[in-house]
Amino acid sequence: MAPPNISPEKFDLAIRTMNGLGISRETVSPVLNNLLELYDYNWEHIEADNFLVLAEAIFDGPDPEIDQEGHRRQSHERKNLDSSHCNKKLKVGQQSQKPTSKMHRNDTAGKLSSRSPCEMKPTRNQLQSSSSRLLINKPNMESNVVEDTPVDENSSALLLRGQDIQTSESPLAVIYPQAEDSSHHRGHKDARGISGVQPAADQNYKGVSGSHERNTIDACSSKALVSSPGLSSNFEVVLSDTGMGKLSFTYNSSLANRPDLHMPDMASVCKEMEARCLRKYKILDSNFFFMNILEDTCQCIVDLSSESSGPREEGIVQIVPTMDFLSGPSVPKMLQSNQASSLYMPPNNLMMPGGVCSSSAVARVGQSSSSNMQVVKYQPTIGANGPAHDVSDITKGEECVSIPIVNEFGNGILPSQFHYIPHNITYQNAYVNLSLARVGDENCCSDCFGDCLARAFPCACAADTGGVFVYTRDGLLTEGFLDSCLSSNATFQCKVCPLERAKTKVNPDPCKGHLTRKFIKECWSKCGCNRHCGNRVVQRGITHHLEVFLTSGKKGWGLRTAEKLPPGAFVCEYAGEILTNTELYDRNKKIGKEKHTYPLYLDADWLTEGLLVDDHALCLDATFYGNVARFINHRCYDANLITIPVEIETPDHHYYHVAFFTTKQIEPFEELTWDYGIEFDDVNHPIKAFKCCCGSKFCKDKKRISRSKSRALGY
Ligand SMILES: C[S@@+](CC[C@H](N)C(=O)[O-])C[C@H]1O[C@@H](n2cnc3c(N)ncnc32)[C@H](O)[C@@H]1O
């Protein structure tokens, strides 16, 4: 009961606030009474900072009697400390001058010293420096415990959250070993397999949340890690050649002595973290891998640690050894631990716990324990982490129509990751002059209105195509134009083309020649017509129903139409990053010959470009940023699509669009194909040609044909 001479409301509030910390009324009452007496029933000091003085007085007591419920709540709270709490703890640790486990050690809870109230009231700094037992946090409205407590939400007052398990040692990260029930991980992994299917992931999340509550890991940071050499309780993520950067996950030293201590394997930690991220941060992306976060963190440190303002060196960080459970294209290439020493030289002078070790020791670490991770420099691969696919619409709403991903094999496989872009975007050095000033009167029809195709006479925009529009009123290519495109397959041997000129430098191959191309010239924004003008087809984007589908053969993914298409119909343009040829060579060198890449030279007018050099010649690369065209597979000669260069916003043909049109009528669910113009016997090409499975009777891949003939003959 509150003494009669004090406000029962205030007394109750103090009790409730302490209750919120798991401290019983029986414990609080005598301490509060003593405090009131000490402070002459002046509530101001006691109420300050959400009864900080009261809580401190209780915790400074010899044996604060915390009731069973309080214990339960406290341990529950401890297990649920999230990283934001830990960050606050970090601040506390940084401010700390000399950690002591208690304030006023000689005082007792029930009998406070006779110092004056001013002397008695600990300053916030004092309190913080005493925080090795007290975790101090702002009111956390997410916690049930604190929610019960009336707290001024606007107040930045600190709230004591009960006794903390922290010791005065403050490891960079503390991982409490848990006996894991792995069953829920399996569920999570399964959910990951069906990318983009949100309900499944969500279901799984609900299913495992209870067990996660019990297994929550405290991960607090406060100051530099003091790790014991030889102690096997470390995860190491070492960065950079010099070993200057390092992520280290180490057991709290008090736990390191526990007999049941064991280092969980990294795979389990990653799985658990993925489950937690799903639960806590609602990361439903089925392609989310915790290892990628670690890798990104390392990459970020590497990036920020360099003063160089040069272009970002991607993929500098690689984590070894392999994490078998992490498979799929989004995962950075993980090396098998036994490959680590042979394929990738570990960095010299790698910092290890307790000092610098030799590279052979590092190699041993890489090979020996799945708990240790090294990060070594390697040949960059670009775009290791990519966005997840939306299986219902790979375009993510970027096009006027949805284009689903269809896998009829039920194996859950999805296309490799890339960023969907409906239009080309410059990568870095490519120069595309889009200025209005460059579009002269002869290159636009500013005096037109409405639909140019409705005019009695073709406008200026038809001049390039012989004074006739190439489109019909139905939005199809005219038969005449389509035929002329199909028949203009003569190649020209260019003596001055960028490929030829560059052959002694990066690319040693002589130019094999290019097709002479007919251009489409569309009306554009500088014209007077409207967006629905019949001479604007490609720029309006995809209109037909298409599907990205997994082919039954060895071609991987392909593109097909879901509707019947007439000849001359626009399907899509080839969208990707606009690169200079030099950038493409560099990129391909890094990617390696074996990987799928999606480049396309913008070579349709190289003949008239004069002394075009590789730094200026352009190409499109849809490997990392692209649209559905990147899925169109090759077919030798009798493909049902043709690419046609399209001039829209730039009057010269240095940069242009590449559009796919149907060459014939195409039935619903027929695969869309185009002839890449590949020379399958060209062994010198920087990109190794695939084994063609186009199925055409005109197939150019002679090796494949002889192989299949041999098979048919039983050799
Ligand atoms: C532009 S991508 C086409 C999309 C690719 N199939 C995919 O799964 O992402 C080109 C790659 O597809 C494969 N490909 C395309 N046409 C093929 C064909 N006729 N036979 C075998 N593989 C083919 C080759 O691996 C080639 O490098």
UniProtKB/TrEMBL annotation:
Keywords: Chromosome
Localization of this protein: Chromosome
PROSITE patterns: SAM_MT43_3 (PS51580), SET (PS50280)
Annotated signal peptide: none
Protein name: SET domain-containing protein
Residue ranges, annotated region (Disordered): 64-147
SMART domains cross-referenced by the UniProt entry: PreSET, SET
Entry annotated with the keyword Cell membrane: no
One term of GO molecular function: zinc ion binding
Gene for this chain: LOC100832831
Gene3D superfamilies according to UniProt: Histone-lysine N methyltransferase , C-terminal domain-like (1.10.8.850), SET domain (2.170.270.10)
Entry GO CC: chromosome; nucleus
Residue stretches making up the SET domain: 544-677
Top-rank taxon, per record: Eukaryota
Record flagged with keyword ATP-binding: no
PANTHER family for this protein: INACTIVE HISTONE-LYSINE N-METHYLTRANSFERASE SUVR1-RELATED, OS02G0621100 PROTEIN
Residue ranges, compositional bias (Basic and acidic residues): 68-82
